[in-house]
Amino acid sequence: MLAERRCRVARRIARSLLAATVLTAVSTFTPAHAAEPILQTEESDVVTLPPGGPHRVLVEDGVYRHSKDGRVYVVDLDTGRLLGMVQAAYNANMVADPAGKAFYVAETTWERGNRGKRHDMLAAYDPRTLEMVADIDLPGRALITPKKPDMAIGADGHYVYVYDSSPTNAVHVYDTALKSVVRTVDVPGCGLVYPWGNTGFSSICGDGSLANVQMDAKGKPTLTRTPPFFVPDRDPVFEHSPEVGANGHVWFISYSGLIYETTLGTQSSVAKPWSIQEAAGLKAASDARAPFEVTWRPGGWQLAALRARDSHLFVLMHKGTFWTHKEAGSELWELDLKTHRLVRRIPLAAHSMMVGVTQDAQSRIMLTDEAGDLVVLDGADGKPVRKIGALGDALIFTAAPGE
Amino acid sequence: MPNPENRGAVGVARNGLDTMAERLARYLAGRSSRRSALARLGGWAAAIPAFPLLPVWRRDARAAAPAAPSPFAAKAQVKDDTKCDYWRYCAIDGNLCTTCGGGVHSCPPGTHPSPTSWIGTCFNPQDRRSYLIAYRDCCGQDACNEQNCLGMDGDLPTYRPQANNDIIWCFGTGSLLYNCSTAVIVGTAE
């Protein structure tokens, strides 16, 4: 009896609920349905980006968790929006044309995913459509967790240089007009590419010297050597030392924090080094001969960025011993390269392996963190502007217009 | 020409040492037979394996052995090869094969060891010796991405490739896809 009554009550409640739902639906949607126009049918299309400003940057994501799937993002730092991306497979490198006409990605794939014939490729992209304008095979390329100077471009954008290390150390020279590799220059015992002018580049050699390569009008190279200026076993210079390619001006930064201002050319010249720590009023840091000394030291991946218009250098710094040169920075130090003085120390909310900077008057600083965010600071005072959350996986370097 | 007086002094010392040795030999001979000496030797020979004292003995013998040569070595441990502070990982960069289905010197199934590698030098805090460690990559599958470590002891930039841990050391293994890193002892560094 009790069960029957419960059943009746339940049915009554259910009926009431149904009636209420129907009434609500009718009262809510009927008038609106009449007011809204029917949505129009659409055509599929593809976005073409408007011309970019100084805050439209390229960011390479190495996607270390599955590095076969690297990519290059096109990002607008003003809106914090991702504007597009292209593939940059397996330890890829990228450079942007100095005039913004194109950007280039050197990458590696295998025909059957993780096996089959290997392809080393160079793709050129239109920066507004992200369509390929060239796509060629390279004779090879060095497979190294990507460092920016594994690839470079000449000042007028005519030559793109791709570093190769197997079977021997060499640089492949790609002619952007002919859309082909026109020469391979051997740089025995040396590595990386630091361009100067339209037709020259230098490589760092294992003994701490430089190899300087100048190509003549026919592309024929002449190699000269600059004597050793540092002792690699004791205090090597970072690969990610910032450069202004147009005039071949590089500030080589050593593990301990010495800065060697260098003007590249057939006779590269290196000025007497000065210490980042001394510029900040501290004692110069020890090198590998006293590895236990704890002090502020430079470190990270793309650990330094240069703002050429006012010769300000931004360096990621952390407190640690020697042999902590890839530790993420807890502070960003801004230095004046002309006066060798510290401008400011910017404490970071999250430790960063990467710093980039745009070159304009309202410059923006780019950092990252373990979550793959792109953190944007104001270049004038280091104050936070925005965070582009989880842009990627492993943001390793940036390319800003005109750098 | 040697000073005769000095020569005399040496002669006196030698005579004294000879006398002492002779006395000791006579004393031992008077109190022990050849058989008992053999028995004692045998006893020691049997007992030594029963005492696992060798590392202690070696440590004592190497009391003057160098202290940890690097900040990493000073904090390294010798028990757990799935952690970044394991002593052999002083200069490793990447995924530990011990957490990817392999071992400290073994590649996970489905991957292939690189025949080439770069060689680091790591200090073992247990026996206080430095060893040459070959960081051989295991290749053919994409990054295993379990425990990732970045040791930096002695890691130099790529213009010193033989001491750099950013290079993909998968030459000669088919595809050069990097899966994980092993740390193989290939000798002592002394």
Automatic annotation (TrEMBL), chain A:
- Cystine residue pairs: 190-205
Q: Which family does it belong to?
A: Belongs to the aromatic amine dehydrogenase heavy chain family.
Q: Name one GO cellular component term.
A: periplasmic space
What is this protein's record name? Amine dehydrogenase
Record has Protease as a keyword: no
Q: Name one GO molecular function term.
A: aliphatic amine dehydrogenase activity
What is the scientific name of the source organism?
Gluconacetobacter dulcium
Q: Which UniProt keywords apply?
A: Disulfide bond, Electron transport, Oxidoreductase, Periplasm, Signal, Transport
TrEMBL record, chain B:
Per UniProt, the keywords (alphabetical) are: Disulfide bond, Electron transport, Oxidoreductase, Periplasm, Signal, Transport, TTQ
SUPFAM superfamilies in alphabetical order? Methylamine dehydrogenase, L chain
Q: What is its EC number?
A: 1.4.9.1
Q: Which GO terms describe its cellular component?
A: periplasmic space
Reactions catalysed, as given in the entry: 2 oxidized [amicyanin] + methylamine + H2O = 2 reduced [amicyanin] + formaldehyde + NH4(+) + 2 H(+)
Q: Where is the Methylamine/Aralkylamine dehydrogenase light chain C-terminal domain?
A: 78-187
Cross-linked residues, Tryptophan tryptophylquinone (Trp-Trp): 118-169
MF term (GO), any:
aliphatic amine dehydrogenase activity
* Biological processes per GO annotation: amine metabolic process
**Catalytic residue list:** 118 (tryptophylquinone 6'-substrate hemiaminal intermediate), 137 (proton acceptor)
* Binding residue positions for substrate: 93, 165-167
Write down the top EC class of this protein.
oxidoreductase
Family, per the entry?
A: Belongs to the aromatic amine dehydrogenase light chain family.
Please state what the protein is called: Methylamine dehydrogenase (amicyanin)
